[in-house]
Fold this protein.
Amino acid sequence: MKNCYFVFICALAGAASSGLLLPTGLRAGWLGLCVGLGVVFVNSRSRARLDAGSKPGLGLAVLAGLLAGLGAGIPLAFMGNFAEFALFVTPQGWPMLLAAAGYGVLLSAAYALRWSFKPGLARSAMTMLMIIGAGALAGTLRGLFAQPISGEKERLLSAAMASLITGVPFALLWGNAVMDHDPAYSHERWSGAAPARKSMGWGSYLFIGFVTMMGLAMGVPSLKELVRSSNEGASKGSLGSIRSALSAYYGDNNGTYPASIEALTVGGRYLQSIPHAKLSPYHPDSAAVKARVDDAGGWSYDNDPRSAYFGTLWLNCTHTDARGSVWTSY
């Protein structure tokens, strides 16, 4: 029964970090449950060691975390993005499977390292710090797997921001749950000499999850609109910059447009690089250039000298912006 309650608390803590009964919360709850099962597996396989006052092996914890992460990732890989409840794109398929495995391995390894510290405040503090660090790293990797974003620095920054909203809260609540309720958190608790910590029970996680759920349901749509407006403004600004560079090239080359807009970046004379078109939620950020509009995201540049539109640049998207205007109309 202790193990069942422990796994339940792990699942509840994970769900509470991302909105409880919202789709994102259910996904996080499933991940918390699977990684909690990994902890139970380590405890059961290390029973003789724990009875003898020895610590479980780190390798076993890493293996259990990998299996738990893969077990969580297989169904999550085929779930939708639930974009209405998320500020950041969720990876799908193999990237999601790898992201879940990363959570399992990093969290399990960080938790297993608690044995390196003496029982008491030092162990509690260092264990929590390691788990939060593992969650931040796992969340950042998840963000990197989600989609390519313009430039490595911008991509890493976006992934780190996503981790602050996803990985860190998950690690904080899940870490508190395992430290409170794991029967093998310490040798003293395993032997029954010390009671389990009860800093947070299931009611606390329900309350946190309810507040998070309400906050996401009410706040995320507004925040997403702000993000969308910012991205749309950046895309329109980039469109104007490239068109200005094309006009300068045209004037410097006897009325001839370049065969490709990449020519504008040669030597950095007109542009340092081709900026990314930010067309979310329809397309990921992209600097790809197509010869015709095919609604693939990025840019479309007519490089056919026989065309009446030779030298014209469009945003390669046939959807509408927040104002209702089709992107190709700009």
